[in-house]
Amino acid sequence: MAKAKNNAGAQSNGPDSGSLDKVRDILFGEQTRRSTERFDQLEGRLTQDIAKTHAAQKASLEALKKAQQEKLAQAVALLEASAKSGAGEQAAGLKAIEAQLTGQVAELESAIEAGQEKLRGEVDAQHEALRADLQAAREAHEAEIQALSAELRGAMVDREQLAELFGGLAQALGNKAGGKRKKG
């Protein structure tokens, strides 16, 4: 983005601004590249951390579901066994346990989903905060570069003025040299 601005300025300010762009690149190019690399690395790490957290939560949820399903399958097997043996009281107790376990599984699933949503919200908020910080840092660097560029442009002497100064100096030196020859 800064290069596009610099190139546009180079076209409008003539050939001197091309060398000014080179000076600016020499002075600040490495710092700008390092800052951009650091920002990209931070964003990459954040993306990886989000993916790892999501995968860990998914695996945890799957393991919990599997454990609850195994308990439920055991309870169902006990229920079927007691139904076959004719123990109605045990069957009712097992049905109650099955209903309780089913309710607990549903509660756990909704608690995990709520936790995931909360975590996603926090990660998104952190991601946006980092993105805003990165943007602010980039803008600060661009403003600093623009200020230094303006300072350099202000310190530059126009070619015509420089030519006049050298011409006046040459003329003054020529007059002194011509005066010494006449005396000698």
Question: What's the SSE blueprint?
Answer:
Layout: H1 2-13, H2 16-85, H3 88-155, H4 159-183
The radius of gyration is 38 Å
Poorly predicted residue ranges:
1-12
- Mean pLDDT level: 82
Number of strands: 0
What's the helical proportion of residues? over 70%
Number of helices: 4
Please state roughly what percent of the residues sit in beta strands, choosing from under 5%, 5-15%, 15-25%, 25-35%, 35-45% or over 45%.
under 5%
Structural class assignment: mainly alpha
Largest sheet: none
What order do the SSEs take from the amino end to the carboxyl end, as H and E? HHHH
Shape: rod-shaped
Report the end-to-end length measured between terminal Cα atoms: 65 Å
Task: Write a structural description.
The structure is a single chain. The chain is mainly α and 184 residues long. Helices cover 95% and strands 0% of the residues. It contains four helices and no strands. It has helices spanning 2-13, 16-85, 88-155, 159-183. Helix 1 (2-13) runs antiparallel to helix 2 and helix 2 packs antiparallel against helix 3. The relative contact order is 0.09.
